[in-house]
């Protein structure tokens, strides 16, 4: 009998070496686990968690949206269901990478977000006016609670109404009437300012489009600031409403590099169909309380 190819011809034949398992999947999982906090920051607050002190003016999470003041020439999107897909470029905490984003909404009722890296879904969130639910598919954990989760996680108190406005590029009204609202026209732009406690809010409205083109929020005590710039306005298919397909978020804290998130939307549809918001937690997942 001829010796096996791996045999020297003497002694018992050695078994063939077991093929080495590919490490591609483990590398993907390790990479996503390392970037999970930033990916969750994108889902939770569009990367606004770079500021250590809260700068967004807030009221109760269940407060209904306030109407736009008549002197403000902004036109917010009118719809029941919205769906959009896009890509986010993230530069924060010394890392740069991109993530795919899938967004669904039922206006004033549900925000559903899914974010993935390297083709693998890592985070899914479903947010209502009084609840926040987040699944981390990599760690096999989930959170279910209220908006205090986002406050603890990112030090940025945020309500459902504010989060919805940021994602849509809508005008963000003051949470109360005692804010000293100031409105002025400067050529093709209307400038709207108001102040709540130590927080200054400025919104620039493109009068030719009646859409917000820039939002700036600054805490005068700490000089922390967040700037959101909206661009690439296009009328939606089967709908004359203008939607900003480009969103740039910059969160700045003195003495620290800015955290930057750039989102390019595509395939944006309003009321094309009634949407589902799939969200189920596998029995094996453990509930996680983040502090």
Could you tell me the number of beta strands? 14
Q: How much of the residues is beta strand, in percent?
A: 35-45%
Helix-strand sequence:
HEEEEEEHHEEEEEEEE
CATH class: Mainly Beta
The number of helical elements comes to 3
Write up what this structure looks like.
- The protein has helices spanning 24-45, 148-154, 160-168, and strands at residues 81-92, 95-106, 110-117, 120-128, 131-136, 141-145, 182-186, 189-196, 199-206, 211-219, 225-235, 242-252, 259-270, 286-287.
- It is mainly beta and 291 residues long.
- The protein has a single domain (53-267), classed as Lipoprotein localisation LolA/LolB/LppX (outer membrane lipoprotein receptor (LolB), chain A).
- Strands 7-8-9-10-11-12-13-1-2-3-4-5-6-14 form a 14-stranded mixed sheet.
- It is globular and about 55 Å long.
């Amino acid at each position: 009998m001829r010796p096996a190819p791996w045999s020297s011809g003497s002694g018992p034949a050695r078994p063939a070496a077991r093929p080495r398992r590919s490490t591609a999947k483990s590398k993907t999982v390790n990479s996503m686990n390392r970037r999970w906090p930033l990916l969750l920051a994108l889902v939770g607050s569009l990367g606004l968690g770079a500021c250590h002190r809260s700068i967004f003016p807030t009221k109760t999470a269940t407060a209904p949206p306030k109407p736009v003041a008549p002197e403000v020439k902004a036109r917010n999107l009118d719809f029941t269901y919205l769906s959009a897909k896009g890509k986010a470029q993230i530069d924060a905490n010394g890392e740069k990478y991109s993530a795919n984003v899938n967004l669904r909404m039922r206006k004033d009722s549900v925000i559903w977000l899914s974010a993935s890296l390297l083709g693998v879904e890592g985070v899914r969130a479903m947010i209502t006016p009084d609840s926040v639910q987040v699944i981390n598919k990599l760690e096999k954990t989930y959170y279910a609670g209220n908006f205090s989760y986002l406050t603890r996680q990112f030090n940025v108190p945020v309500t459902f109404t504010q989060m919805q406005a940021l994602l849509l590029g809508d005008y963000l009204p003051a949470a109360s009437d005692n804010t000293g609202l100031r409105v002025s026209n400067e050529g093709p732009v209307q400038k709207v300012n108001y102040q709540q406690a130590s927080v200054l809010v400025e919104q620039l409205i493109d009068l030719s489009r009646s859409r917000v083109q820039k939002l700036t929020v600054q805490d005068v005590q700490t000089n922390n600031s967040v700037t959101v710039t909206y661009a690439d306005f296009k009328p939606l298919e089967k709908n004359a409403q203008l939607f900003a397909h480009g969103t740039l978020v910059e969160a700045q804290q003195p003495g620290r590099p800015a955290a930057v998130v750039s989102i390019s939307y595509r395939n944006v549809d309003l009321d094309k169909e009634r949407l589902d918001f799939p969200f189920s937690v596998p029995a094996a997942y453990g509930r996680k309380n983040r502090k």
